[in-house]
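Recall the central idea of this unit: under ordinary conditions, the amino acid sequence of a chain determines the structure it adopts. In this exercise we apply that idea directly, starting from the sequence alone.
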Amino acid sequence: MSITRPRHKTDETQDAIVDALLAAGCLVQSLATVGMGCPDLLVQDRQSRLWLVECKSPGGKLTDHQRKFLDRGWSVVIAESPEDVLRFLALVRP
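Accordingly, the structure predicted from this sequence is:
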């Protein structure tokens, strides 16, 4: 018997966002297969702080599961471009 696993769609901007984070010295772990509204990326910056990042295509909408995840109080950076995450990092760096 064969098991078919669902393919998880990632937004078109995710690869570029990951590349920008890596170039900025961050560690990045994809969480895209977790589902149930969990953000796309777990990011650790140079100060060992952890961030959750949801990658969206420009103008992309949050799913119902993603809204519920945020409504539970999780802090999530929503990025539509590499520039979005780089601006965020510039704001939080000492």
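Residues 1-7 have pLDDT under 50 and may be disordered.
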